[in-house]
UniProtKB/TrEMBL annotation:
Residues 154-254 form the Rhodanese domain. This is Rhodanese domain-containing protein. Gene3D superfamilies: 3.30.70.100, Rhodanese-like domain.
């Protein structure tokens, strides 16, 4: 679904990453600043000693010129460029939050932050799990009782490991009746290594199929798992992530719901109309994050349907409920939330969408709201 981007030209989005040794960080930064600026591209470019991670938007013709310029550099040989036509940002708030109001080119230590503190042994990206194409990944799930020939472990099981955050898996995930799916239910990617450590017994000796949005998070996480040694060798990752899978299987295949994306599209779905997500408050089918509702404690995105959403609302995500509130509310001033928004919601029977009518809010739903100005 494409909109025009000035003078009849279509607007588009380009996403790609590349793990490779960068010989001159400053030179590569200068290239991106010059090239993207001249083409009018906006978005995020992250350059690290071990590669780049890029999400930019602009006219499709400009994005195609950018790809050609990048391909001319030997560093990017074999890069998977994900180019798609798209609507422009829905509003300034979404555009700003997703980084599409300016061009940001920065040098970083890591393309994706795998841990918020130094690890005893950092993952060796060259030890990442073997790539499976979308067709290969689908085939494995289709014949889940059969083990990959390359694994050599005929008696071992198969598990699906989702490397994404909870707010992403809420609205879409792979589901296969014959394969156990492991959802770490993490707030952020830097929590994944701790989950892997704590659940090593669920992974050891298994054939592990990993997936994420576009593939980059599986590179590091799969290398971390394989680095654990004996019993952790058989790790496979979906090449190009969910995005490439949906390109290959537009009806969704084994993927249910929508694919959360870190740009102003917010999510991308298949032709399957079924909704996997549910409203935090009333439990109705809902998967639209465009209102950008967030947990008052940890700031993780939450799903709150149109009828349940209150302009003055403050919400508490399921993880904060499960593990305790974890601390005082995020400062309204620091987070840019109007002070008047932190107030008690009227805990009454309220209308529920999609023809369900009115019903009382259950006790556990009241806990989900917890609109209390507490002093901890």
């Amino acid at each position: 679904m494409a909109d025009d981007a000035g003078e009849g030209e279509q607007y588009g989005l380009l996403l790609y990453y590349k793990y490779a040794s960068v010989p001159d960080l400053d030179e590569l930064v200068s290239f991106y600043q010059s090239n993207c600026s001249s083409l009018g591209l906006l978005g995020r470019v992250r350059v690290a000693p071990h590669g780049v991670n890029v999400t930019v938007g602009g006219k499709l013709s400009s994005l195609e010129k950018h790809i050609e310029a990048v391909k001319a550099r030997t560093l990017f040989e074999g890069t998977d460029f994900k180019l798609a036509s798209s609507h422009q940002p829905l509003n300034d708030r979404v555009a700003k939050e997703c980084g599409f109001t300016s061009l940001s080119v920065r040098i970083v230590d890591e393309l994706v932050t795998f841990s918020s503190h130094p690890l005893l042994k950092s993952p060796n990206i060259s030890n990442a799990g073997r790539h499976l194409s979308a067709v290969e990944f689908h085939s494995v799930l289709e014949s889940a009782g059969k083990i990959l020939e390359e694994s050599g472990n005929d008696n071992e099981g198969l598990v699906l490991l989702d490397a994404r955050n909870l707010y992403e898996t809420r609205i879409g995930k792979f589901q296969s009746p014959d394969v156990e799916t492991l959802d770490p239910e993490i707030r952020q990617y830097s929590d994944l290594h701790s989950w892997i450590d704590d659940n090593a017994d669920r992974l050891q000796g298994k054939n592990i199929l990993m997936y994420c949005t576009g593939g980059i998070r599986c590179e590091m996480a799969s290398a971390y798992i394989r680095g654990k040694g004996t019993g952790f060798e058989n790790v496979f990752q979906l090449y190009g992530g969910i995005q490439r899978y949906l390109d290959q299987f537009p009806d969704g295949g084994f993927f249910r719901g929508k694919n959360f994306v870190f740009d102003h599209r917010i999510s991308v779905g298949s032709s399957d109309p079924n909704i996997l997500g549910t409203c935090l408050l009333c439990g109705c089918c809902f998967d639209d994050y465009s209102a950008r509702c967030r947990c008052a404690y940890c700031r993780m995105l939450v799903l709150v349907c149109d009828n349940c959403r209150v302009d003055a609302g403050t919400y508490v995500c399921e993880l904060c409920q499960k593990h305790g509130k974890g601390g005082p509310l995020v400062s309204a001033v620091e987070d840019g939330i109007p002070e008047e928004s932190l107030q008690q919601i009227d805990l009454k029977t309220h209308p529920c969408p999609r023809g369900i009518g009115k019903r009382p809010i259950l006790h556990q739903t009241l806990n989900a709201m917890l609109i209390l100005r507490v002093s901890l």
